Amino acid sequence: GDPIDVLICNTRPLVPGCVINVRPIGVMIMEDDGGKDEKILAVPAPKLTQRYDKVHNYTDLPEITLKQIEHFFEHYKDLEPGKWVKMGGWQDVDVAKKLIVEAIERYKTQD
């Protein structure tokens, strides 16, 4: 599987796989047919935009934004036979940072 998935809240489109400076604000806990599959939620760094200056935790985002993200991930595998997704709720920025550190450590120990 992939080391870690990061969703970036942004008002401008980004090319998939691009690299930008972000800061984590939380994590959506999720499990799918392949096992645990958490999604780190991040916002662009202040040098890129000031839009998210007051967003420090996922709870600072509008509730509808979180519900839209959940809805997407609850249904994005609906048309793939044998695949499923189970949502586990949201965790705060400290949990997100811990998962990022764990992913970095896993990467360092890969063959």
UniProtKB/TrEMBL annotation:
Molecular function per GO: inorganic diphosphate phosphatase activity; magnesium ion binding
Source organism, top-level taxon: Eukaryota
The enzyme's E.C. designation: 3.6.1.1
GO cellular component, one term: cytoplasm
Pfam family, one: Pyrophosphatase
Keyword Ribonucleoprotein carried by entry: no
Gene Ontology terms: biological process: phosphate-containing compound metabolic process
UniProt enzyme class: hydrolase
UniProt keyword list: Hydrolase, Magnesium, Metal-binding
InterPro entries given in the database record: Pyrophosphatase (IPR008162), Pyrophosphatase_sf (IPR036649)
Cofactors: Mg(2+)
Keyword Metal-binding: yes
Recorded family membership: Belongs to the PPase family.
Listed name of the protein: inorganic diphosphatase
Organism name: Globodera pallida (Potato cyst nematode worm)
